[in-house]
Amino acid sequence: MEQDHKNEREKCKGVGKTVVAAGGNGERHSIHLTVNGHLYELHIAPSHTLAHTLRDTLGLTGTKIGCDYGACAACTVLIDGKAALSCQTLTVKCDGKSITTIEGLEDPKTGKLHPLQQAFIDNTAFQCGFCTPGVTMSAKALLDENPSPTEVDVKQALTGHFCRCISHYQVIKAVMEASRKREVL
Ligand code: FES
Ligand code: FES
């Protein structure tokens, strides 16, 4: 299985449009998906979730799977600019949509971190490896929609993210700082 995924990922490299088979040998659906600006044509099993497609098929392991049943928000990505739980989203339902993952935030030419990511670093707001990508994507969705949120807005936007270490205070500071700098627009 891992070899299959490796072969699929090899096909993905350096091309704008890629045909990828994924999700076992049964029924497949053909869809088009733009992920971080790259267009893919996927032949996908109807039961494949977006979280698994991103991680297992496309090799974008920045998106984490915490619970895999909609309880923790670790798997949050942007679908057409809106924050969504990728573990609760069937990939076939994303036909024609644009997905942004944590890998898509940095500048594709320079590799420079997105200002929001930099604000997380500057405010020691990075959480554990499972929580940080999803929290960052929810914050990105918020600031794209509301460039000047209140702290209450930030808390509401991040309310679905469950972590055990109570480090959200630093996250709120980071998002507010990014908002003040207006660099995320
Ligand atoms: S992994 Fe999707 S909500 Fe927990
Ligand atoms: S930051 Fe991941 S569990 Fe708390």
What descriptors fit this protein?
185 residues, alpha/beta, Ubiquitin-like (UB roll), DNA polymerase, domain 1, 2 domains, six-stranded mixed beta sheet, globular, binds FE2/S2 (inorganic) cluster
What does this structure look like?
The chain has helices at residues 2-12, 50-57, 115-122, 132-145, 151-157, 168-181, and strands at residues 19-22, 29-35, 38-44, 76-79, 82-85, 98-100. The protein starts with a helix and ends with a helix. The protein has a six-stranded mixed β-sheet with strand order 1-3-2-6-4-5, sandwiched between helices. It has two domains: 2-101, Ubiquitin-like (UB roll); 115-181, [2Fe-2S]-binding domain (DNA polymerase, domain 1), CATH 1.10.150. The chain has six helices and six strands, in the order αβββαβββαααα. By secondary structure, it is an alpha/beta fold. Residues 7-15 have low confidence and may be disordered. It is globular and about 50 Å long. It binds FE2/S2 (inorganic) cluster (FES) (2 copies). One FE2/S2 (inorganic) cluster (FES) binds at residues 65-68, 70-75, 85, 87.
